[in-house]
Write a structure and sequence with these properties.
Length: 271
């Protein structure tokens, strides 16, 4: 079994989009094993599982994003994998992304998870590393008002003014392309199954931060066709709200000493 594994969770995705992600992964590393967990009602996407390095699992019960990735993570651990990539189906990349990330984590075993630089298809940066938010911060991020105050707020919250090539610790890293140290996952556990979608990556980052580092590694880049579904669909927005309530019920709402301490420590590294 490969010491490096990856997983993609699907739900009625466009096959041409998924093929770009699968090809990027398999062409990047000749030993990585890719788990495809398909939450779609039917297994029409099974045709993308080509070759011995792609393991397809049809999972029509659709337990959610994190729960489906947990299926792959649990199997990877049982098979002896050491490093596991959680990958969205709408990403793609060229060049060697996997090896530099694994090598850096291997050289720094205190890292529990890390993400690369994430770019929009036009090459501009997606500001996905974040400080730990309060509920008010989430609201401000959605409303974006008043504009003059919003600009300063979002620059701090999303760490936008940091040197774009600096490797640093970030208490929230995105789940669209995450490298997990499976030794850390054995200790901390995988995704919280209570999140159907949204906030599950924030929750995992928060738990990892308690014992390991969560790192932004912009030495390599991937492209992400970000859709922002919760801003376009009332159904997805309701799921977003439910996940937000679960997150803040779990980690604290307004007064949260732990959140303040973690954010202060994060900002101190830039002084």
């Amino acid at each position: 079994m490969s010491r490096i594994t990856a997983s993609i969770v699907l739900y009625n995705n466009k096959i041409e989009v998924v093929n770009k992600a699968v090809s990027s992964i398999l062409n990047n590393n000749d030993s990585i094993i890719l788990y495809i967990i398909d939450n779609s009602p039917v297994d029409d996407l099974k045709k993308i599982a080509f070759g011995q390095r792609v393991l397809y699992i049809h999972n029509p019960s659709n337990p959610g994003f994190g729960a489906a990735h947990n299926i792959a993570i649990d199997r990877a651990i049982k098979e002896g994998s050491e490093y596991h990539f959680v990958i969205n189906p709408d990403i793609y990349f060229d060049g060697d992304v996997i090896t530099p990330m694994v090598n850096y984590m291997e050289s720094n075993p205190d890292i529990g998870s890390m993400m690369p630089e994430i770019l929009y298809p036009d090459g501009t940066i997606q500001y996905l590393p974040k400080l730990l938010p309060s509920p008010f911060w989430i609201l401000r991020r959605k409303v974006k008002y008043p504009p003059n105050l919003y600009k300063a707020f979002v620059a701090k919250y999303e760490l936008r003014d940091i040197d774009p090539q600096k490797v640093y610790n970030a208490p929230i890293i995105s789940g669209c392309f995450t490298l997990l140290n499976l030794q850390a996952i054995k200790e901390i556990g995988g995704y919280d199954d209570k999140y159907f979608m949204y906030f599950e990556d924030w929750d995992l980052s928060r738990r990892i931060t308690g014992k390991y580092r969560t790192v932004y590694f912009p030495k390599v880049s991937i492209y992400h066709e970000y859709d922002s579904g919760a801003n376009k669909s009332w159904h997805l927005f309701k799921i977003y709200l439910k996940s937000a309530f679960h997150y803040f019920n779990k980690w604290g709402w307004i007064f949260n000493k732990g959140r303040k301490l973690i954010n202060a420590k994060t900002l101190d590294q830039f002084n």
